UniProtKB/TrEMBL annotation:
Residues 15-61 form the Ribosomal RNA small subunit methyltransferase E PUA-like domain. One of its GO terms (cellular component) is cytoplasm. It is found in: Cytoplasm. Belongs to the RNA methyltransferase RsmE family. GO terms for molecular function: rRNA (uridine-N3-)-methyltransferase activity. Pfam families: Methyltrans_RNA (PF04452), PUA_4 (PF20260). It catalyses: uridine(1498) in 16S rRNA + S-adenosyl-L-methionine = N(3)-methyluridine(1498) in 16S rRNA + S-adenosyl-L-homocysteine + H(+). This is Ribosomal RNA small subunit methyltransferase E.
Amino acid sequence: RKIFTDFPLEARFELNGADARHVLVVLRHGVGDRIAVTDSTGTTYACRIDSIAGHSAVLTVEERLSCRTQETGKVVLAAGLLKNDKFEWLIQKATELGVHTIIPVQMEHCVVKLNDNHRSGKFERWRRIAVEAAKQCGRDDVPIIREVMPFTELFQAYGTSRFVIPYERETTSLAEVCHEVQQGDVVLCIGPEGGFSPKEIAYAVSQAAWCRTVSLGKRILRAETAALASLSILMYERGF
Ligand code: SAM
């Protein structure tokens, strides 16, 4: 099991809770041992254990081992908020498939409307799910989980990226545009259960520097199926 932190590492830092116990009890490390720790920026460092007891370990960074590598560019998944635990499922699977960033997006037809009281709790849980999924599948990094973003803000933040938007009213297939997004950063944007509104599609096309709406076939897929299917195709085309 890898050790991930949800903060960028400083020269000296503390691990606590389950991570400290894991280092001590499961990995059986002690003072003076070196372990690899990956921080929230996706950078992995060799760290020396200065002290360790119970639920706390103090470590010193000795050397940088690797940096988050995205040889073919970053794949960002921007998906409409989903009901129940569907967004959690999506985070777990998208992490396994190697996305760089996941953005929960508040869209016009979202059934779920997160108010400020619920946002931070959800965010913490989503982040934990991404960490667990990254550990389980052996990734070197944890995808960045962004705070819930309104649809229009997505284009302010990522407007210069290329957007691929599965849209059930489109006839051009994802396969036809895949060769255009084999390299470089790309945002895959998926609608919620209720789909995109025509206004949102028009806004996306007018705001993004590069935008393709694509079909995923004749059948209407559930949002989470559409996200996973298109992500798998995209990752395959980009050599995973
Ligand atoms: N608007 C539809 C409705 O309310 O019946 C369905 C929305 S669908 C459940 C959720 C999202 O999955 C869509 O916004 C779209 O991004 C994607 N999607 C599902 N099936 C698709 C298809 N055949 N082609 C392209 N995108 C699809």
